[in-house]
């Protein structure tokens, strides 16, 4: 008989969304720089704030997915996700800017709002939200933790067996 499993905790899911968002941003900025300036070094960038921003937004979009999955089709959900992403990017950017810590500035884009968001990224956010739901959120929600395995005591040696 298999051991009982339980869903990944909210903190575990937040962590995976944070890692995914951070990696996606680094790859996106590297690709953007390559396309714009033919920078063959393919160096992406991000900030220390990115994991908090992406992890929290991932949990919010996960909740939205769970509420909407049986009520509307994927393109409609992706449009709603995109709106949420813009609102989250604007809100976190405004908060960080208040403390002089906002790592992005879209002022050089034609269709920016206060330098915190830009419509030029709309298609990327839309496609990215479809990929987020279909490849990341659905997979993370399927992850299970073996509930029979007991956590190690601090300072205990690693043992790959169950008591």
Automatic annotation (TrEMBL):
Domain of life the protein comes from: Eukaryota
Subcellular location: Membrane
One cellular component term from this protein's GO annotations in UniProt: membrane
Annotated transmembrane regions: 48-66, 78-101, 121-141
Record key words, sorted: Membrane, Transmembrane, Transmembrane helix
Pfam families, per database record: ABC_trans_CmpB (PF06541)
Name of the protein in its database record: Transmembrane protein 229B
Organism listed in the record: Laticauda laticaudata
